[in-house]
Design brief:
It is a single chain. The chain has helices at about 15-25, 30-45, 45-70, 125-130, 135-140, 150-160, and strands at about 100, 105-110, 110-115, 120, 165-170. By secondary structure, it is mainly alpha-helical. The strands form two sheets. It has a three-stranded antiparallel sheet with strand order 4-1-5. A two-stranded antiparallel sheet has the order 2-3. The radius of gyration is 18 Å and the shape is globular.
């Protein structure tokens, strides 16, 4: 069991590296190391990261099970938000203030396809940057290290599939309720 992990939470690949190491420990039958890595992720990351880590591990387990059975994996939703909570789809800040309607699209990755949904939520700062089409500013705001290939593909999908102006909603309300 290693004492120190050479993973840094400010690096975009941090969660990917952590999940990969957890899965490798489990594959090797080292549940103690897997549990230590999970505890490390919870201690060093945010609540949102812990939710994402749990969901990604469950999704990968479901994918492996489906593959072993020769089946296609059922669609799987992953979100940093708590149940009923909205987050900015660009920077993951809580309490977005607008959404943008988009034509649904998918991004194919090594773990399967990411389905966009028909709305992208934005916090006040990301809204300002999106409305100005300041994509370099958005990248700077989110942080270049966090703006990896997956995030670039997501923003490109948004740019290519956006349908109109921002739709405002009252703070504290959830426009997803009742949909």
């Amino acid at each position: 069991m290693s004492e120190r992990l050479d993973l840094h939470t400010e690096d975009a690949p941090w969660a990917h590296s952590l999940v990969s190491r957890i899965r490798a420990a489990r594959a090797a039958g080292d549940e103690e190391e897997a549990d230590r890595l999970i505890a490390y992720g919870r201690a060093e990351g945010s609540e949102a990261l812990a939710r994402l880590m749990d969901q990604i591990l469950a999704m990968l387990d479901a994918r492996d099970t489906a593959t072993a059975r020769g089946e296609d994996m059922a669609p799987f939703s992953i979100s940093a938000a708590q149940d009923g909570q909205l987050v900015c789809d660009f920077c993951a800040a809580t309490d977005p203030v607008v959404y943008y309607e988009v034509r649904e699209f998918s991004i194919q990755g090594p773990g399967g396809a990411f389905l966009s949904g028909d709305r992208f939520y934005a916090c006040p700062r990301c809204r300002e940057l999106v409305d100005a089409s300041d994509w370099k500013g958005l990248r700077a705001w989110i942080g270049p290290k966090q703006f990896g290939l997956g995030h670039r593909m997501l923003v490109l999908g948004f740019k290519n599939n956006r349908r109109g102006a921002a739709v405002e909603f009252e703070p504290g309300t959830n426009p997803e309720a009742g949909r």
